[in-house]
Design brief:
125 residues, Immunoglobulin-like, 5-stranded antiparallel β-sheet, 4-stranded antiparallel β-sheet, 48% strand, disordered N terminus, DOMON_domain, signal, copper ion binding, DOMON domain-containing protein, DBH-like
Protein backbone atom coordinates (compact mmCIF):
# COMPACT_ATOMS: atom_id res chain seq x y z
CA UNK A 1 0.00 0.00 0.00
CA UNK A 2 1.51 3.26 -1.11
CA UNK A 3 0.83 6.55 0.60
CA UNK A 4 0.85 9.67 -1.50
CA UNK A 5 3.09 12.33 -0.04
CA UNK A 6 2.57 15.77 -1.43
CA UNK A 7 5.52 18.08 -1.83
CA UNK A 8 4.98 21.78 -2.37
CA UNK A 9 7.17 24.73 -1.57
CA UNK A 10 5.72 26.82 1.25
CA UNK A 11 5.79 29.95 -0.85
CA UNK A 12 4.06 28.19 -3.72
CA UNK A 13 0.69 28.23 -1.97
CA UNK A 14 0.30 31.96 -2.53
CA UNK A 15 -2.16 32.41 -5.35
CA UNK A 16 -1.52 35.11 -7.93
CA UNK A 17 -4.72 34.44 -9.91
CA UNK A 18 -7.53 31.97 -10.41
CA UNK A 19 -6.75 30.23 -13.72
CA UNK A 20 -7.27 26.63 -12.52
CA UNK A 21 -5.90 24.82 -15.59
CA UNK A 22 -8.34 22.16 -16.89
CA UNK A 23 -7.04 18.59 -17.40
CA UNK A 24 -5.40 17.99 -20.78
CA UNK A 25 -7.61 14.95 -21.47
CA UNK A 26 -10.38 12.90 -19.90
CA UNK A 27 -9.27 10.87 -16.87
CA UNK A 28 -11.28 8.24 -15.08
CA UNK A 29 -9.49 8.80 -11.76
CA UNK A 30 -9.27 12.10 -9.85
CA UNK A 31 -8.65 13.32 -6.31
CA UNK A 32 -7.98 16.60 -4.54
CA UNK A 33 -4.96 16.19 -2.27
CA UNK A 34 -5.77 18.97 0.18
CA UNK A 35 -8.89 20.44 1.77
CA UNK A 36 -8.52 23.83 0.05
CA UNK A 37 -8.34 22.33 -3.45
CA UNK A 38 -4.82 23.66 -4.10
CA UNK A 39 -3.50 20.34 -5.43
CA UNK A 40 -5.33 18.05 -7.83
CA UNK A 41 -4.27 14.68 -9.19
CA UNK A 42 -5.72 13.07 -12.33
CA UNK A 43 -4.63 9.64 -13.52
CA UNK A 44 -5.34 6.70 -15.75
CA UNK A 45 -3.53 3.47 -16.50
CA UNK A 46 -3.30 0.63 -18.95
CA UNK A 47 -1.30 -2.62 -19.05
CA UNK A 48 2.04 -0.84 -19.41
CA UNK A 49 1.82 2.77 -18.14
CA UNK A 50 0.31 5.08 -15.57
CA UNK A 51 -0.34 8.62 -16.81
CA UNK A 52 -0.43 11.22 -14.03
CA UNK A 53 -1.38 14.87 -14.25
CA UNK A 54 -0.69 17.06 -11.20
CA UNK A 55 -2.19 20.54 -10.89
CA UNK A 56 -0.93 22.79 -8.09
CA UNK A 57 -1.83 26.33 -7.11
CA UNK A 58 1.78 27.43 -7.41
CA UNK A 59 4.03 29.46 -9.64
CA UNK A 60 7.03 27.57 -8.36
CA UNK A 61 7.36 23.82 -8.50
CA UNK A 62 4.97 20.95 -7.91
CA UNK A 63 5.76 17.40 -6.91
CA UNK A 64 4.32 14.14 -5.74
CA UNK A 65 5.82 11.23 -3.86
CA UNK A 66 4.86 7.59 -3.53
CA UNK A 67 5.96 6.13 -0.23
CA UNK A 68 5.77 2.66 1.32
CA UNK A 69 5.52 4.21 4.81
CA UNK A 70 3.86 7.63 4.42
CA UNK A 71 7.10 9.59 4.84
CA UNK A 72 9.85 10.94 2.63
CA UNK A 73 12.38 8.18 3.37
CA UNK A 74 12.28 5.54 0.60
CA UNK A 75 9.68 7.53 -1.37
CA UNK A 76 9.76 7.63 -5.16
CA UNK A 77 9.43 11.38 -5.84
CA UNK A 78 8.63 13.23 -9.05
CA UNK A 79 8.82 17.00 -9.14
CA UNK A 80 8.99 19.62 -11.81
CA UNK A 81 8.48 23.23 -12.76
CA UNK A 82 7.83 25.50 -15.72
CA UNK A 83 10.32 28.24 -16.53
CA UNK A 84 9.88 30.64 -19.46
CA UNK A 85 7.14 28.40 -20.86
CA UNK A 86 9.31 25.25 -20.81
CA UNK A 87 8.40 22.36 -18.49
CA UNK A 88 11.07 20.41 -16.60
CA UNK A 89 10.70 17.23 -14.55
CA UNK A 90 12.97 15.16 -12.31
CA UNK A 91 12.78 11.62 -10.91
CA UNK A 92 14.14 11.51 -7.35
CA UNK A 93 14.20 9.35 -4.23
CA UNK A 94 13.61 10.28 -0.62
CA UNK A 95 16.33 9.81 1.94
CA UNK A 96 14.64 11.75 4.75
CA UNK A 97 13.43 15.28 5.42
CA UNK A 98 15.85 16.92 3.01
CA UNK A 99 16.03 17.76 -0.70
CA UNK A 100 15.67 14.40 -2.44
CA UNK A 101 18.63 13.48 -4.67
CA UNK A 102 18.08 12.61 -8.34
CA UNK A 103 17.71 8.95 -9.23
CA UNK A 104 20.58 7.49 -11.23
CA UNK A 105 18.01 6.37 -13.81
CA UNK A 106 15.38 8.92 -14.84
CA UNK A 107 12.26 6.77 -15.40
CA UNK A 108 9.75 9.60 -15.75
CA UNK A 109 8.58 10.80 -19.16
CA UNK A 110 7.32 14.39 -19.34
CA UNK A 111 4.29 14.68 -21.62
CA UNK A 112 3.20 18.27 -20.95
CA UNK A 113 3.57 21.16 -18.55
CA UNK A 114 2.21 24.68 -18.25
CA UNK A 115 1.61 27.60 -15.90
CA UNK A 116 -1.34 29.98 -15.80
CA UNK A 117 -2.00 32.72 -13.23
CA UNK A 118 -0.60 30.93 -10.22
CA UNK A 119 -1.34 27.31 -11.28
CA UNK A 120 1.25 24.79 -12.51
CA UNK A 121 0.39 21.59 -14.36
CA UNK A 122 2.70 18.66 -15.08
CA UNK A 123 1.64 15.57 -17.04
CA UNK A 124 3.91 12.53 -17.12
CA UNK A 125 4.16 8.76 -17.32
Amino acid sequence: HLSVTLLLSATALWCVGRCDIPPTEEYYKFTTLDIAGNVKLYWKYNDTHITLEVHGRTSGWVGIGFSPNGGMRDADIIFGWVRNGVAHISDRHGIGRTIPPADNQQDVNLLAGSECDGWTMLKFT
